[in-house]
Amino acid sequence: MRERWTMHQPETAMNLADAPLRRISADDMHAMVEAGILNDDDRVELIDGRLIVMEPIGWPHANTVTKLTRLCIHRTPFPISPRNPLRLSAYTEPQPDLVILRPDRDPDGPILGPHALVVVEVADTSIAYDRDVKLERYARAGVPIVWIVDVHERIVDVYSLPERNVYALRETPTDLHLPGGDTLHVSEIFPPSHGS
Predict the structure, then answer these.
(1) pLDDT for 83-131, tens place per residue?
(2) For the CA atoms of 71, 74, 77, 79, what is the dihedral angle to 10 degrees?
(3) Backbone angles phi, psi at 148, to 5 degrees
(4) Three-state SS across 22-72?
(5) Structure pTM?
(6) How far apart are CA 174 and CA 158, in angstroms?
């Protein structure tokens, strides 16, 4: 005898959001890379023990990261780390677009949150993710300054004064202050568009 299958009622159906998950640590993720389970083509970052698939990089994003990297290298004496993992905790390791580092960190060890002087996120399609997810993790780790570079609005939001999970100060300046005392004008990142 065949019975017609019907879905469980909502009160008895299992919700995937409630299913138990095994969190992955940063060490687990790097072991997966060494084992060949993950490779450089897998654009993922670790947030709270979950592997998050990152959006493909478009040309506006890529070109802005390239320009910012070049500008920062020539304007600050501090080390620059482009597109590398930044370990914020045992279970969170994002890959910001650019990090200006303290000069006294161990050059052979992982890059940790306390090593960052400035974290730069270039936002093309990822603006909500950068502001709503990653910014909180940077604040929690005590990263002193975060720039979110909005390629569509052609502005840079500067977040500073981390307090627990938030930044107490958000500014949208025309001049960005780099470690070492030099200044970077936002107009250098976003030159006037054609026709303006």
Answers:
(1) 999 999 999 999 999 999 999 988 888 999 999 999 999 998 889 999 9
(2) 60
(3) -110, 115
(4) CCCCHHHHHHHHHCCCCCCCCCEEEECCEEEECCCCCHHHHHHHHHHHHHH
(5) 0.86
(6) 10
